[in-house]
């Protein structure tokens, strides 16, 4: 039998209960924050026309050049499994006439995205993004609001020490001059650039600033800096954004090499990471920025917008690493139900359902025969009481309630068990 029949495709993973619990924890906390800040949930389809990402994300980005899962339908349409949400959000804004809604239109989302990347730590081919997007305002306070929302989200789920990297990459007014001078600088040193950056020089020179290759790192140290080229509008916008971050006491670092790998960004770009060794290994937990030109580029009205997305698996990776092996409150139960013999087993299943209806949290091992094995499980789950139905109790329709700490036992009629437990717990 082919080996791949019992393996997930490269870079794709099964989610276990612990992963799903953490994913839900992130999502539930995000929902509370989104509600408070007035962001509505939105969910575009998993598949969009390929052209949306080619145009929106950008023809010369890694995503479009190398990472998209494309398919051709029977009807001949070219569709793509979304590699990110932002172009879908911009598409939906135009399609549903959201420009007629009070601005800014604030949306949030959470769901799977697909990128055919080289798998490594914190880098998967199917992962979840949770994002906040505000469309229709150019105010820097919205850039700061998005950063503040992600900061609050990370802190409430237990990522306490964070660092926000920020930069401003200009707009259509000031970026061309910067780009020109950057190309001039790198062209003069092109022989020493890595092969990828040699290609970037022609197609997407700003991305050279992002390169982590040692030889490119050295060269970029002397490169022109975007902050020296910003037009007045971009300069003031960035200044205002930074002043608000300071007011909010959000720790940030100016990173002139932060350019982000997507074509639509204008002005503010940011990334949030955990400020620790483990956090550095995991990579950016959140990435985002302003995309004032995207909606117009896709055929809509000129609409400034800003947003960001959190990579759920990276956050889950951090949280899982620091979880203790002790049972969590969700894994512990106050009551454990044990039984001995066939009749007792049947009665136990009935009692188990009665306890569920009474809203009591109960553990069981109805598949087991040995009482001592079941008592061991009760101990492990930190149960306060174990209910035991032995052969004798099954015949008499009774239950033994055993207090685990003292070992004290009491025999109670089956139909009085719930009341007895509720009086004691
Ligand atoms: P991005 O930086 O490509 O931005 O992705 C956002 C986050 O998704 C990253 O910071 C990272 O946590 C996570 N991520 C990205 N690639 C992977 C991967 N292969 N495996 C696991 N996690 C990953 C965007 O996608 C933009 N749409 C963000 C945005 C929203 N900008 C404005 N609005």
Helix-strand layout with pairing:
Elements lengths: L16 H21 L2 E2 L5 E3 H7 L5 H6 L1 E4 L5 E4 L4 H10 L9 E10 L11 E10 L4 H17 L5 E7 L6 H13 L7 H9 L10 H7 L11 H16 L4 E3 L11 E9 L2 H6 L3 E5 L3 H4 L7 E7 H10 L13 E5 L2 H16 L4 E3 L6 H10 L4 E5 L1 H6 L1 E6 L5 E5 L3 H8 L1
Parallel strand pairs: 1-5, 7-8, 12-13, 12-14
Antiparallel strand pairs: 2-4, 3-4, 5-6, 6-11, 7-9, 9-10, 10-11, 14-15, 15-16
Helix pairs in contact: 1-5, 1-12, 5-9
The structure holds histidyl-adenosine monophosphate.
Structural class designation = alpha+beta
The CATH superfamily of the largest domain turns out to be: Bira Bifunctional Protein, Domain 2
Number of domains: 2
The share of residues in extended strands comes to: 15-25%
CATH architecture of the largest domain: 2-Layer Sandwich
> Which topology of the largest domain does CATH recognise?
BirA Bifunctional Protein, domain 2
As a whole number of angstroms, the C-alpha radius of gyration is 28 Å
State the shape: elongated
List cofactors, ions and other ligands: histidyl-adenosine monophosphate
Number of strands: 16
Question: Which consecutive residue ranges, at least 5 long each, have pLDDT under 50?
Answer: none
Helix content: 25-40%
Largest sheet: 8 strands, mixed
CA(first)-CA(last) distance? 54 Å
Indicate the CATH class of the largest domain.
Alpha Beta
